[in-house]
Amino acid sequence: MEAMENVVRLAEFRRRKATAQRAGASTEPGAQYFCLRCEAEEFRLYATGTIHCAKCGALIRNIHVDSTCKPA
């Protein structure tokens, strides 16, 4: 079901998140995810929970998507 995928551009996400966090207390950098095959930082998230590199299609095994919703 490729129609139900999302492309996540982590560099853009980090930039937006860093801008929002500058006003708050400084935090240590979090985990940095990238494809080991092509070093891309864009991933496709599928409805089944699998994650693939958007550039080369490699399966990303070290990121887990949990479908349960936890209240904040």
What does the model show?
The protein is an alpha+beta fold and about 70 residues long. Helix content is about 15%, strand content about 15%. The chain has a domain at about 1-15 and about 35-60. The chain is built from one helix and three strands; from the N terminus they run βαββ. It starts with 5 loop residues before the first strand and ends in a 19-residue tail after the last strand.
Descriptors for this entry?
72 residues; alpha+beta; 3-stranded antiparallel beta sheet; 3 strands; 17% helix; 15% strand
Give the class from helix and strand content and strand pairing. alpha+beta
> What's the number of extended β-strand segments?
3
Low-confidence stretches: none
Biggest sheet, spatial arrangement of strands: 1-2-3
The overall pLDDT average reads: 76
Biggest β-sheet strands, sense, barrel: 3 strands, antiparallel
Order of helices and strands: EHEE
What is the percent of helical residues? 10-25%
Q: For the record, give the distance between the C-alpha atoms at the N and C termini, rounded to a whole number.
A: 30 Å
Measured by DSSP, the beta-strand proportion falls in: 15-25%
Assembly type of the chains comes to single chain
Radius of gyration over all CA atoms, rounded:
14 Å
Total helices: the number is: 1
